[in-house]
Amino acid sequence: MIRLKTMLLEQKAAGSQWHSCKAWKAKGTSYWNGDQGRPKITIEVNDSGFLLKYVGAASGFAISHANDGTGDTLHQAFNVVMCECNPYLIKGGLKPDIENISTNDTRVDGKHKMNIWIPFIKADGTWQVNRRGGMGWDPGSKAVIKAVGDVPNLQGPVKVVTGSITEYFVTYTISDSPKKSADKKDDKKDGKQDVKLNFKIEPFDPTHIEPFKLDLSTLSTFPTLGDTGTVLPPKSNIIKDTDWSKYPGDEMYIYQKRGEDWYAKNKKTGQEYNISDVDKYKSSVDNLEKALKAKKLIKV
After folding, report:
1. Other CB atoms within 10 Å distance of the CB of residue 231
2. Taking the CA of residue 188 as centre, how many other CA atoms within 13 Å lie in the half-sphere pointing to its CB?
3. Most Cβ neighbours (<10 Å): which of 31, 113, 120, 223?
4. Full-prediction pTM beyond 0.70?
């Protein structure tokens, strides 16, 4: 019973439902131990703070990535920070001291040795840490503010530079009984109005998502479970951040590709969802990729 209660609490941790965190949890430090050329990751956490140590290559391995990408392995360690730090913080009474985060990165014998230290301080409530960043570029502070949305007691962002990696950290509290936002209510309302389209719209339940099959002629609605935590720069062969596009037959959403991730925006509410990090929408992402290559997306 105690373990079940702990698991239920951990599911509330920021990032716990991301594919990137699930990918990390599936292997963890027992796999990422430095054997056979793999990076070695060690984690220490207690009421004083959280420490991650990384030794390995900058790229070539998928450790914690929304699409199992291998191009920014070193940067993915910052996803691991959220995957491991927030479940510990969920017990409450501790707050990430983002003003005093310290990191360093050196290269020894061709390998990166990176340390990430987040101190904790005592505080009322249940606090979480969140971040967005770029490897080889600076996404700006607005990226993390946009990602976390309207959250209680938001503090930050604080800019942290580690070698070629630029991160923006925030901290905020979460409620034991989160209220459904007005945007989610609007999504449900929109969904009922969209029955004429050739797919079934399921109300969003963050604890249970039913699988569905998507017809090539249309795309479904996209309730969000969270972002990947890593903002990637636009590439020359994809639609740029300033270009939103319509998928043929879809009157409710427009779509945009940012680096490796696809985003959907509700045209009525303006709310955006990262759909690349939710397993349920893999077929939808595949269809968007096909439409992009076939030049069937309509820029708006």
Report:
1. 24
2. 8
3. 223
4. no
